[in-house]
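Colleagues,

Please find the record for the seven-part complex below.
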Amino acid sequence: MFRNQYDTDCITWSPAGRIHQIEYAMEVVKQGSAAIGLRSDKYALVATLRRSPSELSSYQKKIFEIDEHIGIATSGLVADARVLAKYMRNECINHRYVYDGPMQVGRLVLQVADKSQLGTQRIGSRPYGVGLLVVGNDQTGPHLYETQPSGQYFEFTAMAIGARSQAGRTYLEKHFKRFAELPLDELITHALLALRETLGSGTELSSTNVAVGYVGGEHPFTLLEDETIQPYIDAVKKPDEAAPAAAPAAAEGDAAMDTGS
Amino acid sequence: MFRNQYDTDCITWSPAGRIHQIEYAMEVVKQGSAAIGLRSDKYALVATLRRSPSELSSYQKKIFEIDEHIGIATSGLVADARVLAKYMRNECINHRYVYDGPMQVGRLVLQVADKSQLGTQRIGSRPYGVGLLVVGNDQTGPHLYETQPSGQYFEFTAMAIGARSQAGRTYLEKHFKRFAELPLDELITHALLALRETLGSGTELSSTNVAVGYVGGEHPFTLLEDETIQPYIDAVKKPDEAAPAAAPAAAEGDAAMDTGS
Amino acid sequence: MFRNQYDTDCITWSPAGRIHQIEYAMEVVKQGSAAIGLRSDKYALVATLRRSPSELSSYQKKIFEIDEHIGIATSGLVADARVLAKYMRNECINHRYVYDGPMQVGRLVLQVADKSQLGTQRIGSRPYGVGLLVVGNDQTGPHLYETQPSGQYFEFTAMAIGARSQAGRTYLEKHFKRFAELPLDELITHALLALRETLGSGTELSSTNVAVGYVGGEHPFTLLEDETIQPYIDAVKKPDEAAPAAAPAAAEGDAAMDTGS
Amino acid sequence: MFRNQYDTDCITWSPAGRIHQIEYAMEVVKQGSAAIGLRSDKYALVATLRRSPSELSSYQKKIFEIDEHIGIATSGLVADARVLAKYMRNECINHRYVYDGPMQVGRLVLQVADKSQLGTQRIGSRPYGVGLLVVGNDQTGPHLYETQPSGQYFEFTAMAIGARSQAGRTYLEKHFKRFAELPLDELITHALLALRETLGSGTELSSTNVAVGYVGGEHPFTLLEDETIQPYIDAVKKPDEAAPAAAPAAAEGDAAMDTGS
Amino acid sequence: MFRNQYDTDCITWSPAGRIHQIEYAMEVVKQGSAAIGLRSDKYALVATLRRSPSELSSYQKKIFEIDEHIGIATSGLVADARVLAKYMRNECINHRYVYDGPMQVGRLVLQVADKSQLGTQRIGSRPYGVGLLVVGNDQTGPHLYETQPSGQYFEFTAMAIGARSQAGRTYLEKHFKRFAELPLDELITHALLALRETLGSGTELSSTNVAVGYVGGEHPFTLLEDETIQPYIDAVKKPDEAAPAAAPAAAEGDAAMDTGS
Amino acid sequence: MFRNQYDTDCITWSPAGRIHQIEYAMEVVKQGSAAIGLRSDKYALVATLRRSPSELSSYQKKIFEIDEHIGIATSGLVADARVLAKYMRNECINHRYVYDGPMQVGRLVLQVADKSQLGTQRIGSRPYGVGLLVVGNDQTGPHLYETQPSGQYFEFTAMAIGARSQAGRTYLEKHFKRFAELPLDELITHALLALRETLGSGTELSSTNVAVGYVGGEHPFTLLEDETIQPYIDAVKKPDEAAPAAAPAAAEGDAAMDTGS
Amino acid sequence: MFRNQYDTDCITWSPAGRIHQIEYAMEVVKQGSAAIGLRSDKYALVATLRRSPSELSSYQKKIFEIDEHIGIATSGLVADARVLAKYMRNECINHRYVYDGPMQVGRLVLQVADKSQLGTQRIGSRPYGVGLLVVGNDQTGPHLYETQPSGQYFEFTAMAIGARSQAGRTYLEKHFKRFAELPLDELITHALLALRETLGSGTELSSTNVAVGYVGGEHPFTLLEDETIQPYIDAVKKPDEAAPAAAPAAAEGDAAMDTGS
């Protein structure tokens, strides 16, 4: 596990010009349960696998509404995600108060990234342990962004983050060129299919472990969970896979994180 | 006991993207004496094993009233639990003062979780060493939450934390589906039965080492101790187990913690 | 003496979920000279072994009056004890000033415990190295509390802390059930007898090395020392033990602490 | 990877009179994707290779407009670059507000360098991990500067920074003497040809992975991307190289940095 | 010289419940030159061995007047002693200003001890390296106190601190019972005789290396040095010891301390 | 490279009474390119070797005007030199504002030295990595000072600092006795000849790599560069050395420093 | 060079009750060039060896006037000496302003010592690396004090500090008894003779490397240098030693210090 002596804080450069603590923080994003984001010319949406620590519990929220035109899906430390979500909500509220209108998505993402950068250049704190997929709709149309603990962000047509997200990205790369013109329900179907790629063996999509959030057209940010997501789940269910409902993985050791099921 | 070099403070990421100090703090919750929480459609309640450091002492309080509609059961460092209880009381008082009404349970839990998160991202402090089961009743009905040192929280139908709590969870998983419609006294009985599962050999439930707090219906948060809990204890006593009263475990080495008996 | 690498400050959790510095601080209480506390339905009292560093010196004070209805006996670092005593006096004075009446004992103990907790969650300070037996009398009757460096406190019927206090506790456990109805002088006698159990060989109770403080009934907190304690000493003296007066132990190495004689 | 014991913070001198952390920070600039800058008597321009972390994403912005007469190209940590860009924009806005005119390029560069120096002489922060090529046009004509993490800056006729930039510098050294009188389009062609030298095998210039920014003459700072850069790309394309479009390198391990493709 | 890993700062407890830095600071008191304190029912006095670093220098002051009714003798770091003396003088002046009367000796000693305690519970400072013998006379009669770096203090009938002080204490223990009624000059003689016990071989009391301070009866604090102490020196001189005047020890290595001659 | 354990910060003394970090900082001055200073009774001047990191760049400024009567030449970290130059300019401006006249050279040098001393006695910062030759002319005539990272300064008749400066000093020691009466152009010639001594093999003085600044008589501080220095260069050129123009050394590894060519 | 683990900062006591950093700081005083101080009943004077880093430089100032009745000679770090000299001047100015008269010498010395003590009890700073000989004349006559980095000070009749000062002290011890009545010029001669004892072989007193400062009688503090000291130099020159003028030692490695020649 040992690598070298330059990796215990984020204000020390390695001789190779790297800041290992930033890289380590980005590992945690790869370990959260998967989140899928994609957008057409009219809609942007995120889909996530939800986990619950036990059969007795409700499912962990992984999609948050930020403002009526912006929502996020998270992967990584849940408590850190809440801090960023709170910050984003405040920024949107302030923007509405001052300018009497919705905040531009790209501008909000930039501010989150700048806030994240701070944690990478000061002693006494640490980089946030969470990656976000941000979807929003403003006068420039729908957008999908990814933010990282390093303070970097990218705009995407479609993206998957979290555990086993590579399989989801592969799905998306195969299909994203057709997304631009698709209607909302087909986009949701694609998101669920991409999400299914990230499932481990013995797990299945279900109305309880999947949540989808979309925004675009005339719709404010809308969350599909439980009953509202069921029809879409049914639609993507392969005939021979009506088998066991997704058994939520018991949290072990890393309970502070939404581990990929 | 040694694991690696990235585990001495909570602002250092391990190369695998973990913050070990947060995980270590969560260990202490597993070592406090057990606490059980469950709820029906109308009531939410917590039940705890109380300990006393000696025959000469009173029993350690593990259930605290926060407001007349909210109570908590704790597992872990007692002194840390008091800090959080004090914080929660102040928040409820402030809420009543400002809004002239009770605080919503979920909102209070969120604030406790955010406060806990702070301790995981700053140098010079440490994560709180206590887990809480929060029960409350508001206009959305009764609720049961668990909060963790990591700043994470979950809503549960029923939950057990603390030493040997796995046995309690097993009991709850077997029965929780019937809780929704049960009257209060049957819920208490279930809580005591679940609590009994967490007892070590040679220990028995008694009116002195058990406390139950409930809220819901027309009842404000109410604590059952000593005489008031006796009838319920008697009800769950197996005929052949009228044996030795629970011998309180003498505190050894970890006296700062409510060790599981 | 070495245990592990997680024990050099009180904001680092060990992998087993313990904070070793808190536990180490509690060791110092076990090394101070013994203090006995007990209460009846009407009185609460503390008795301590006093030490003097040399024949030339006066005896070290171990019982402090806090307010006219509250007193404490200490075991551990004397200088730390003074800090807490000063804090308690100020709180009582402030309470009298604001509410024009005596502070409730339990409330004061809670504040001391909360103050102690602070020292266990911040870098740059250390846990207090002293344990207190607090006796007081308020509208709810007489009380006996023990506070610990960890920020924990318990209410007791009778308790012994400090060096060789286990022998004192054994005595108390044998007799405490009869304390409730006893008159003051019998309570004092029991305290002295319990204290005698904690003596090492070659030491004897005397009017110089014993102090007793009591409160209750119509009595404000009263300290019995020297001549005033002599009758009680005489009363518990075994006929065949009129031997050498208690030879005060010379302080060696740990002069900052009231070592048990 | 180990060198010596004097390289873990930027306030420690090595016995040889060096501050290794500053040198390490300069390594990161060499690892970003290449950026070319050059100027004639009338124009100054920068050209960069853009990367995208995946086929699904947009390309990472590497050229930023600072004011209408100043622009920068960056190599190194993108998040750090944004911090400096933000600072530069603020300085320009303030200058316009106070003096009602554009800021002199050299003065702005000096301020950036001074700000960078701060990070090399204080504990608790770190040197910025980014190098800038700054182009601007003011009453003294067009300028090209390079700033470094060390707080040093130089004025150049032409310069290449980032991965494999040595090849670009070699090209520039061969041709820079003729730049002074060249028209804008020939300057752009030279920049693209220099940029092509820095490409790894299997990569090719394309309208998506190249961006050019220029300023000078009557032109404010202007960015050529996508369609607007296409004609210039076509012009430098060798007949036999109409082969594969530049495959963007997948980010691996150092995603916080614009790695050279 | 090595003992363990818990002894490098005063906010770390050893597993045995000790704070080694406090104990180490108390070592320095044992290394200063000796100081003797004693009191009768009417007078309190201190006597010290003075040192000079060389024949060329004046003698180091070791007795300081604090107020007209209080004086101190010091053993340990001279510079630290000055800090405490200054503090004590200020407290006395303030007391006189506020209450228009002299400060009680015991109260001043308590404040010095509390100030010393602070240095044992905070990081970033260190315990004072000096022990004081405080003599004073107030409405409760004459007093002699010893304060320690740990923040502890004791009242004494007679006491010796510093190098070879054990021999002085032995003398005092033999004679202190007769001190109560003695006139001032006999007390001084006793102090000198006790001081002589602490001398190393080849050193002798002389009017230059001895100073005595007394207070009591109608006398304000009075310092006897040089000529004024000579008669008392002569009185205690043994007939056969009119030999070499005390050769002051040259300071070696620990010049910051008043080393015992 | 290892020396001992007392050399990692400037607030730790070595057992031999040295502060190694200060000494290390002085090493960097020896590695900058050479600077020569000398003065007559009427003029003071500095001459420096300028470097450029590449053929494409302008030459690094090493002489700065501070006020119209003061200038400096630097050797060491360029960014640190700028910080001191800025400080000196501010002091001169403030002096002119307050006293309506030029600042005395010696006074300014003293302030720079005091500012440098601060960096050697505080944790959290580091000594400046630059040495200055300060020339100025005030009512007391022309002056030449050297300041060092240690906070020390000296007045000189003539001095050389930086790489290979020993050869320059040897030249100056041979000729300085005649400087007092020389006219300005002969002084410049001497400076260039001394500077030539510091050149490595294969390098030659040229109008591009040399700069001279002088002040004195009626002249304000004047900088000779490029064309203005050419005549003096020609004058000192040996007939057989009209060979290759000084090839500027490429910066390698220590680009933050003006390395000696 | 290694001694133990308790010597890296001045707030850590060694088990033997020593603070090694203070002792290390005192080493630097022994390494500065020698300074001699002595006084008669009417005059106090200091004499120092001055050094110059090179033949080209002026001599380093080692005697500073503080006020017209006080002067100091320093040995150790020159930059630290300036800080203390500045402090002393300010104190004298303030005293004159407030009390309209000169400050008493002993009081000023005390303040310097208290300021020095601060550096020995706080983290984040270091003890000053300089020893002072302070001479002054006030209504109590002439005085000579030595202050040390430890915060200690002594009054002397005559004293030598710095390199090879032991030889100077030996001279002084032989003659100091006659100083009281001597006229000024004989005192200066004694000082120079004592100073000559501290010279290494091959060095000789000269008007350039010696400076003398005196105060007393009607004289304000007066500095003898260069021509004014020449007659006294000539007076003490041995007939056979008219040889080489003192060759100033080139500074090597410890240029921050006035090394003993």
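Chains A and F do not touch (no CB pair under 8 Å).

Comments are welcome before we finalize the supplementary table.
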